[in-house]
């Protein structure tokens, strides 16, 4: 039933786009993690809004109870940025960027300097990003392999809350480099050099294939890809 409904919606949308091109909307609903909005995506939106007459509504995909696939299938989003790819004939899915991660602690941490060994880290208490996103779960799985002795004592679905608590306590945790560079001075943070490479997090861009029937949407996507 879900598949047939999606096909019907695609057919209706395609017909409207072809027969009524003059009324194609220039507003876009985008679901994107706040992490990504601080980096390449934020710069991209600034450029698009300056050059074109776009009306953009942004929602945090991490706070949505619906999956990226459902957001697109039920036309609640025109464009979704997700930490996990979607394999569907009706959805275009491409890698948008890679998020670099680092381990952060307070500049005033009583035990840790600019670098730390695995043994030293095993004595510390960690923060953890709470999320149902498969990409975040995969990062946590990989970091658990690298640091199997982690003692997690603070969990949150807000990265800014995690960074705040790290800056005012002895806790340490993995945070996106983009956010660290922006807030490190305000939140009293420093990075810790590790004896291993920290996994990166993939960010994927997804949209309905049928949306390419809209010349306005196609131009919007082309601008994103150029940026």
UniProtKB/TrEMBL annotation:
<keyword id="KW-0238">DNA-binding</keyword>
<protein>
    <submittedName>
        <fullName>Transcriptional regulator</fullName>
    </submittedName>
</protein>
<dbReference type="Pfam" id="PF03466">
    <property type="entry name" value="LysR_substrate"/>
</dbReference>
<dbReference type="InterPro" id="IPR050389">
    <property type="entry name" value="LysR-type_TF"/>
</dbReference>
<dbReference type="InterPro" id="IPR005119">
    <property type="entry name" value="LysR_subst-bd"/>
</dbReference>
<keyword id="KW-0805">Transcription regulation</keyword>
<keyword id="KW-0804">Transcription</keyword>
<feature type="domain" description="LysR substrate-binding">
    <location>
        <begin position="27"/>
        <end position="222"/>
    </location>
</feature>
<comment type="similarity">
    <text>Belongs to the LysR transcriptional regulatory family.</text>
</comment>
<dbReference type="GO" id="GO:0003677">
    <property type="term" value="F:DNA binding"/>
</dbReference>
